[in-house]
Amino acid sequence: MVINLDLKDRKILEQLEIDSRQSNSKIAKKVGLSKDAVAYRIKNLENKKLVLGYYSVLNITKLGYQSYKLMITLQDTNSKIEEEIISYLKKERLIGWIVSCDGYYNLLMVVWVKNYFEFEEFLKKFLKKYSKFIKERDILILTENHASRKRYLFPKKENVSDVYYSNEPKMNLDEKDLKIITFLANDARKPLYEIGDSLRLTPEAVSNRIKRLRKDNVIQAFRPIIDTSLLGYQYYNILFRLKKFSNIEKIFSYFRQNPNIIYFVKYIGEFDLGIDLEVENTEKLRQTLQEIKDLFYTDVESYSSVLISKMHKISYYPEL
What we know:
With 320 residues, this protein is α+β, with helices and mostly antiparallel strands. 37% of the residues lie in helices and 30% in strands. The chain contains ten helices and eleven strands. It has helices spanning 7-18, 24-31, 35-47, 79-91, 116-130, 175-185, 192-199, 203-215, 248-257, 282-295; strands spanning 51-58, 66-74, 95-102, 107-113, 134-147, 163-165, 219-226, 234-242, 261-269, 273-279, 300-314. An eight-stranded antiparallel beta barrel has the order 2-4-3-11-8-10-9-5, surrounded by four helices. A two-stranded antiparallel sheet has the order 1-7. It starts with 6 loop residues before the first helix and ends in a 6-residue tail after the last strand.
C-alpha cells in the first residue's frame, strides 16, 4: 500500500532529513504547525512504518575505521536459510549496512573494520558457517563515500550538498565522546538528558560535546530511516566499471546534482564507482542510466544493477 503524504507531512519529513535532532518546537516554526501537531504527525509517520528510526551519519575514518563492501550471490537456499543468514549478519557488530536484493547479487553489506586483518577474521568466520550457500562473493574497498539527502521527495529547490568521508586521520576522542557517538549512531533523536544521565553529564555538557563533534566533522548529519517503498519508490544499487579515470570529479558532480541519487562512492576492486538510486519506476531508472551513458560514454565501460528489496540494518558505528 502506497502512503500519500500531505504538504505538512512532507515539510516535517524534510526537516527531519535536514536535521533529525531538531526539536519539535523548531520544526513547528518552520512548517507552520503547533509543537503538539508536529509531535502527533511524527508519531503517525513512525506508526505507519514510513519512518523506521533515526541514525547519525559519521565520518568513520576519523573514528579509525575502514569500509569494505561484501556482495553475495546465494545458492541452494530457501526462505528459512536466508532468514538465518541475515539474522546472523545483523547481529555481527562490524556490519553497518545490509540489504536483500534482486539481480546478480542477493545480499549486499558494508563492513566497518579497523584494518584488513579484522575484515579477514570476519570473512573467515562467516564463510566457515555459510560457505556452502554462497555461489559468488565479491569484495570492494570503499575509499570515498558521499551521502545526500532525499531531495527528490521535496518540492522546494535547495542548494546541492552532500556529506562525505575519505581517507582522513583518526581523531583522539575521550571515552565520553565515544559513548555519545554510540548513543546517537542508532538513535539520533535521543534526548540530551537521557545521554547525560548515563554519562553523569549535564544536558548542556552533552550538547556542547555534540556541537564540537559536529564542528570537527566527526558527526556529519542526523537523518531519519525512511522506507520510501511505502511512497512508491524503488531502490537500486548500481556499480560502474570505468575505462578512464580522469573525469571522476565531473561524474561525481552529475551524481551530486541528481536528486534521486542518495549515495555515491568510489571503490577499489572489481568496480570503480557506485550509486544508490531511488526512483518511481524502472523507466526512470533506464532514463537515468541512459543519461549517464550519453554523458560519460568515454569513461564508463560497463555497469551492473540490483534492485534492493529490503534494508535490514543501517548503523555508522560498530556496536561496542
